């Protein structure tokens, strides 16, 4: 969700299993070629200029073409890649918008620089700013969006292979995705661990929520060290599950749907190039992104998306908000009313649960106050 998390990926991409595997893949290609220099040039140009021997699967490069492909029954393993754009309509602010972004409003925490709030070394010395911010953004204060429930529908219809998310807001889980449906690339608030290497005791979401909203700095019950939500800070590695899952999932992907992400951060952005060459890729975003970039190609990264050239054969861009794009696709699939009803039903359930919890909390608080009055009298 945050640019801070994106920067964490940048710090680790060079040493990641992803980078190592790409280096290994490049070596294998060179060894197999009779002319290593020509093979290298051929590989770089195909990556950066959009050359491909991939089979054309979509009847047309449009949202209608994607919908027809899904309805054909040939599409059985859809992977979704999502970023902060799928949560903005839930009311979760971004980080860098001038004046309104979270970074623009952190002066009250007296940070040496805004990104320090997600710096692991700074956190260990000064955890207060992070937990103050966590109270503002804590999971459970926002409802999933139309986009989140569209992904849930893909799961319910047996079409979702996996959802790869850059977000830490847990809204995919609230919408009904289970742990096995998700790869949370930047970690999650869903679990927390003691930061002490020799301890690492795990804590759940409710435990952390109680600590944060009681203005306590969460400390480990076993060793009294700090306890931190399992989100990726600067100076920390991406979850191992990210690297192990992508190797299994992407070769099987027969449709990649990318929503609400800039595709500028590695290694997440490079996932788009891991699907088979014939696999259609749909981008639902406010602007086109992930297009072929020569420098990124030289480094072995970059999406290599091609929406507009004469050689475009599989990439589709649906520009607009993620919710609008999902509703439009659902309409073409004949799912629109079902999706709208799912959103309404699930939001009503969340509202009902929140109302019940508030009533119980008020009742408990009232009883406590009554007890104090009786003792005084």
UniProtKB/TrEMBL annotation:
UniProt keywords, alphabetically = Cell cycle, Cell division, Cell membrane, Cell projection, Chromosome, Cytoplasm, Cytoskeleton, Membrane, Metal-binding, Microtubule, Mitosis, NAD, Nucleus, Phosphoprotein, Transferase, Ubl conjugation, Zinc
EC number(s) for this protein? Answer: 2.3.1.286
GO CC terms in record? centrosome; chromosome; growth cone; microtubule; myelin sheath; nucleus; perinuclear region of cytoplasm; spindle
Q: Which Gene3D superfamilies match?
A: SIR2/SIRT2 'Small Domain, TPP-binding domain
**Which family is annotated?**
Belongs to the sirtuin family. Class I subfamily.
The free-text function statement in the UniProt record for this protein reads: NAD-dependent protein deacetylase.
Q: Which PANTHER family match?
A: NAD-DEPENDENT PROTEIN DEACETYLASE SIRTUIN-2, NAD-DEPENDENT PROTEIN DEACYLASE SIRTUIN-5, MITOCHONDRIAL-RELATED
- Annotated protein name in UniProt: NAD-dependent protein deacetylase
